[in-house]
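Example 3.2
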Amino acid sequence: MDKQVAEQIIRSFVRATMNVYNLLTNTTLSPGGIEKASSSLFKTSGVIILLSFSGAFAGRTILSTTEEMMEFIHECIVGEKPAQNDLLVTASEFGNMLVGHAVTDINNHFRGSNVRPSPPNSYIGENLTFFNFKMSAYNVVFKSQHGDLKLNIALKEGTK
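Structure, written as tokens:
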């Protein structure tokens, strides 16, 4: 994938992450730098959201954070403490909003790219390992007063 295209897609996901978080919580996330992943493996724990997209550009993002941070997001949306299953529903909705914002930005920037999201998948677990098969991956760590949020973006060429 062209480096400038990859950078634009990554920026779209970074902006979407910050905007959706701010919209839902009325607080801010501060992104760290974008780093190329040094391995095909991405290891994480906590609440994990998998978001895929396809079209002229295809890829997958993994968003991970702590249960405490997802509880905070849930409380901001619903106004009450969540049950365990509520965290997965909240994570899926957060992911759905995030990928929708990012894909809209990508399609507005690259007219005719017809990038479409897949429904998000959410998990809660410890010591999970994901493999980025034949994709270039990038990592961004966001900081907030309620914890960290990690974004792993893996990109490959898609078809129109």
